[in-house]
């Protein structure tokens, strides 16, 4: 197949060097570069908020992309512009390990280092070399110069501790996301959430691990396979994770939903689980005990000739979940007797 380019009324030209940098470039970085080079936008002063709005990116992502291309030698600042204004400086305050406030001064552009500058940095501060080596080991890859720049920027620009970045790399490796751009993107999202201290990161990662565990169970039960969760489905999984609902209780709620609606309805599962949590049930044993107590109370009421309002949640759970539980108990007891 042969293709040709329909140029229309204009042409955007990219420097040839861009092609060699593509393996380490993120989508946002490439989008910003193409946007700036199209329609001769560089002839005027760059409005970061306007660029971010048109590309549907965060302003920090636009600034980071421009810093990347400057560091790669594709873009450079007009000397006349530099003389007309001073360097932009941003001050970021974060909580330190002992609860105090740590003030970090961040320049307007993310610093990027040449190979020689990286060597000088490592010579002056050997810990940086060890930091990069450890990141490479955790992610299982040898970094390119551009990737080294990204990992250094997390420490030198964003002010994150080496321990913070190493913990983040370990988490990304555990979920099989070992690319440096993914680590950088995750770090930026955490910073935007205010998760900058080690303790806050550990808490965040623990929640995400439990979230992925619940998500995996829900995918298996509901047959979601590999498709992305919808925003509503994600909120359900987040809620069940926050409430620390055990897997066996989620499975029972799934059976209740299927029994009563004929489908794996997550909204229905959420209603059932909310009822159980509101009733104070924290284990499957407590759930089954509640179901059994409800059944006895209903039978007693009917014997007395009175009416009893049905509870959809208990009734549907009773149809199958209790029977399965009792069957498992009997089978386990049988296996125990056979073994003795």
Outline the biggest β-sheet. 2 strands, antiparallel
Give the termini distance in whole angstroms.
Answer: 73 Å
Overall shape: it is: elongated
Number of domains: 3
Please give the radius of gyration in angstroms.
29 Å
Oligomer description: single chain
* Beta strand count: 2
Strand content of the residues, in percent?
Answer: under 5%
Textual characterization of the structure:
By secondary structure, this protein is mainly alpha-helical. The chain has three domains: 63 residues, Orthogonal Bundle (Arc Repressor Mutant, subunit A); 108 residues, no CATH class; 114 residues, no CATH class. The protein is built from 16 helices and two strands. It has a two-stranded antiparallel ribbon with strand order 1-2. A hairpin with a 5-residue loop joins strand 1 and strand 2. The longest helix is centred in the C-terminal third of the chain and has 28 residues. The chain starts with 16 loop residues before the first helix and ends with a helix.
Short description:
With 340 residues, the protein is mainly alpha-helical. The protein has helices spanning 17-21, 27-37, 48-55, 59-71, 79-84, 115-124, 126-139, 145-156, 162-174, 180-192, 198-222, 231-242, 247-261, 266-278, 284-303, 312-339, and strands spanning 89-95, 101-107.
What labels describe this entry?
2 strands, 16 helices, single chain, 340 residues, Arc Repressor Mutant, subunit A, 3 domains
SSE map:
Blueprint: H1 17-21, H2 27-37, H3 48-55, H4 59-71, H5 79-84, E1 89-95, E2 101-107, H6 115-124, H7 126-139, H8 145-156, H9 162-174, H10 180-192, H11 198-222, H12 231-242, H13 247-261, H14 266-278, H15 284-303, H16 312-339
Antiparallel strand pairs: 1-2
Helix pairs in contact: 2-4, 3-4, 6-7, 7-9, 8-10, 9-10, 9-11, 11-12, 11-13, 13-14, 13-16, 15-16
């Amino acid at each position: 197949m042969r293709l040709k380019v329909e140029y229309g009324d204009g042409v955007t030209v990219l420097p040839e060097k861009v092609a060699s940098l593509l393996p380490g470039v993120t989508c946002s970085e490439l989008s910003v570069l193409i946007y700036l080079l199209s329609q001769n936008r560089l002839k005027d002063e760059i409005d970061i908020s306007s660029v971010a709005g048109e590309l549907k990116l965060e302003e920090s992502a636009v600034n980071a992309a421009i810093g990347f291309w400057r560091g790669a030698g594709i873009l450079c600042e007009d000397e006349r512009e530099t003389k007309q204004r001073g360097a932009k400086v941003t001050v970021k305050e974060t909580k330190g390990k002992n609860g105090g406030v740590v003030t970090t001064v961040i320049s307007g552009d993310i610093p990027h280092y040449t190979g020689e500058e990286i060597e000088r940095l490592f010579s002056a501060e050997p810990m940086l070399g060890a930091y990069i080596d450890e990141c490479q080991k955790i992610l299982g890859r040898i970094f390119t110069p551009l990737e080294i720049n990204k990992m250094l920027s997390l420490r030198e620009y964003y002010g994150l501790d080496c321990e913070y970045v190493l913990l983040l790399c370990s988490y990304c490796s555990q979920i099989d996301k070992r690319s440096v751009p993914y680590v950088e993107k995750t770090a930026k999202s955490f910073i935007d959430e205010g998760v900058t201290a080690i303790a806050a990161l550990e808490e965040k990662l623990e929640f995400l691990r439990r979230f992925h565990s619940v998500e995996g169970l829900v995918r298996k039960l509901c047959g979601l396979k590999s498709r992305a969760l919808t925003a509503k489905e994600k909120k359900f999984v987040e809620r069940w994770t926050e409430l620390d609902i055990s897997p066996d209780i989620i499975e029972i709620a799934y059976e209740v939903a299927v029994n009563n609606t004929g489908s794996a309805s997550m909204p229905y599962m959420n209603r059932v689980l909310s009822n159980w949590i509101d009733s104070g049930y924290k284990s499957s044993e407590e759930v089954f005990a509640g179901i059994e107590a409800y059944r006895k109370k209903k039978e007693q009421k009917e014997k007395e000739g009175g009416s009893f309002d049905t509870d959809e949640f208990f009734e549907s759970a009773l149809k199958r979940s209790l029977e399965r539980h009792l069957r498992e108990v009997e089978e386990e007891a049988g296996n125990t007797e056979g073994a003795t």
